[in-house]
Amino acid sequence: MHKLAFLRIKETVVEGKGFKTLRFMFNRKVRPGQFVMVWIPGVDEIPMSLSYLGRIKGITIREVGESTKILGSLKVGDSMAIRGPFGRGFERLSGKTLLVCGGAGAAAVLPIAEEMDNRERVDIAIGARTKDELIFEERSKMYSDNVRTSTDDGSEGCEGTVVDLAEHMMKERKYDFLQACGPESMLSSLLKVGKEHGVSGQFSLERFMRCGVGICGSCVINGKRVCTDGPVFWGEELESMSDFGRSKRDESGQKIGL
Amino acid sequence: MASLRVNVAGLIMENPTILASGIIGETGESLLSAYKAGAGAVVTKSIGLEARKGYSNPTLVELPFGYLNAMGLPNPGIESFGEEVLLAVRGGATVIGSVFASEAEVFAQLSSKMEAFGVSAVELNLSCPHASGYGMELGVDPGVVREIVLAVKKSVTIPVFVKLTPNTHRIIEIAQAVQAAGGDSIVAINTVKAMAISIEAGRPILSNIFGGLSGPAVKPIGLRCVYEMYDVVDIPIIGAGGIETWQDALEYIMAGAVAVQIGSGIGRRGLNIFKEVNFGLERYLKSRGIESLGELVGTAHA
Lengths: 258, 302
Fold this sequence. Notes:
The complex is a heterodimer of chains A (about 260) and B (about 300).
Chain A: E1 5-16, E2 19-25, E3 35-40, E4 44-52, E5 56-62, H1 66-72, E6 79-86, E7 97-102, H2 106-116, E8 122-128, H3 137-141, E9 146-151, E10 158-159, H4 162-172, E11 177-181, H5 184-196, E12 200-204, E13 220-221, E14 224-225, E15 232-234, H6 235-239, E16 247-249, E17 255-257
Parallel strand pairs in A: 7-8, 7-11, 8-9, 9-10, 11-12
Antiparallel strand pairs in A: 1-2, 1-6, 2-5, 3-4, 3-6, 4-5, 12-15, 13-14, 16-17
Chain B: E1 6-8, E2 11-13, E3 17-19, H1 28-36, E4 41-43, E5 60-63, E6 66-69, H2 78-90, E7 95-99, H3 104-117, E8 121-125, H4 136-139, H5 142-155, E9 160-164, H6 171-180, E10 185-188, E11 192-194, E12 197-198, E13 203-204, E14 211-214, H7 219-230, E15 237-240, H8 246-255, E16 257-262, H9 264-269, H10 273-288
Parallel strand pairs in B: 3-4, 3-16, 4-7, 7-8, 8-9, 9-10, 10-15, 15-16
Antiparallel strand pairs in B: 1-2, 5-6, 6-14, 11-14, 12-13
Helix pairs in contact in B: 1-2, 2-3, 3-5, 5-6, 7-8, 8-10
């Protein structure tokens, strides 16, 4: 069982426009890609990937709604409530790996590079809409000799999507695996491009969640529970899911477009 | 040859384990995944007339001996649920359709839709402990229970199961009311009304304040309810509440249950729980030279 833990915030870091990292002590073993449920009393409880997995763990928030704005306003010394970690994270793979980060997805992916700790074996592609929203570029360079960026508006790195960038990188050199997190439309294109280049990989999905422990069924995609069977799935698993890249369930369980 | 096959009011199942309502039962494919994992039948999430979003999070609290939850009856509404049932039924699952409403006529209407979708039985949710105007608020009054069961019986030809709440001192009268109205089976128990407070935050954790307690913490309560009802009704009883092992299931069977429902155990033990319980029961029957599980029903009664 995952006891609700109240943790004191040790550090806050502004990562980019609208992005903030909160660091705290959390003495539980966590795999890259696993997530926690963060409770904002009186408001909500939301799933968040852990963006730092060392002794001092962290979450990286994009301030988009009421909950994330409240989390973003927390200061050093404030406490926050989390339970977890939950789900199946990224595997520790042996081979040349390209990490692909779309927007806030970098939070779930960067811990893989830290775990690998092998500058030659891991390359990193980071994409965002615009320069200000690129996160973890400097952190990536600590763990990889080949870090590239892309922005939709061309304000930094290649102009275009991170999938275009990843494809370009796959043409330059041979990778054994892709590991990625970002918007589902991006993951769906990346899966196709990877396949064309004969590179299989793992992709982290996002769905509306309630329980986190695999019982309520709110986060299911084609019968698989994203909170328990995922959030990280192999491309081969996603290919057999008719909802992947197309539809999700709303809070009532009705199927809606992504 | 030891047999786990059970017959609950005409509903034949290959084994006595049933996926409980509210557990991964919101989509056809997840119902099917529980069936493929070994459940003898699967109960859908409780479905109402209209789509409902449920309560905001937190909706679940993990406790050392179970879960506390208040989801708030989220469901897509009966009209869009037909395709989910169809998918599970086409995949070979034996599906029981759970429905909730605030009045007898709507229960009847929903049940009739469920029958048209192809379910093998309906289960009336008269026991959800945390939704105003629904569930337990109806299920603690024998007169109301009787009226609802009568209305549903008139509207369907499939068996009608009634899931009851332990949150009442009138459980015997309510069980008798189900039987008197023609209900085909009783499912006992739903969750026990409960709460949790965070001393750090100084407030209840669930957004709804109150929720339902499930898991091993409630097993002794469920057992007692089944045992008490077995003495006063003739219709089959399905036991539920804290079943995680074959020994738990056997306790319920000896108390008087012909089959059991499993819910929280899936979160705590995984989807393989159905196979594990069935395997244990089968081995027990063989070791004792008992031919059918049915021989053990109610044997704990003096």
